[in-house]
Amino acid sequence: AEEVIITLSGGAPWGFRLQGGIEHQKPLQVAKVRKRSKACRAGLREGDELVSINENSCGSLSHAQAMNLIDSMPGTLHIRVRRAP
Ligand code: LEU
Questions:
Q1: What is the CATH code of the structural domain delimited by 2-83?
Q2: Which region, left, alpha or beta, applies to residue 48 given φ > 0 means left and ψ of -120 to 50 means alpha?
Q3: Residue 74 pLDDT > 90, yes or no?
Q4: Ligand 1 atom at minimum distance from 12 CA
Q5: Phi and psi for 69 in degrees, rounded to 5?
Q6: pLDDT-derived band of residue 43, with 50, 70 and 90 as boundaries?
Q7: Which atom of ligand 1 is nearest to the CA of 13?
Q8: Residues 17, 31: contact at Cβ < 8 Å?
Q9: Could you tell me the distance, in angstroms and rounded to a whole number, from the CA of residue 15 to the centre of ligand 1?
């Protein structure tokens, strides 16, 4: 899989939903990207796995912790994702 960095700016709502998390023993993954949203325009895709957000590793986060992390980031989000080829 390749890794891609997606840059989101301009503030929430970003227009995507997550699934998975450590408590589900599943990777944190982008479940849905809303059409014409900031996330969509920035190139985020359904199925992308979250690796880090602004240098904070996502590997051991619960679903709620990941959402809180995203909500707590002021300004711009740099989201590193793993993407299946
Ligand atoms: N649903 C939120 C948004 O689109 C992102 C979520 C993953 C915290 O801004």
A1: 2.30.42.10
A2: beta
A3: no
A4: 9
A5: -60, -45
A6: very high
A7: 9
A8: yes
A9: 6
pLDDT of residue 75: 87
Q: What is the Cα–Cα distance from 11 to 4, expressed in whole angstroms?
A: 20
* Average pLDDT value over all residues in the chain: 96
Residue nearest to atom 9 of ligand 1 (CA): 13
SS (H, E, C) the chain: CEEEEEEECCCCCCCEEEEEEHHHCEEEEEEEECCCCHHHHHCCCCCCEEEEECCEECCCCCHHHHHHHHHHCCCCEEEEEEECC
Q: Say which amino acid occupies 78.
A: H
CA separation for the pair 30, 45 (Å, rounded): 7
Q: What average pLDDT score do residues 46-52 get?
A: 98
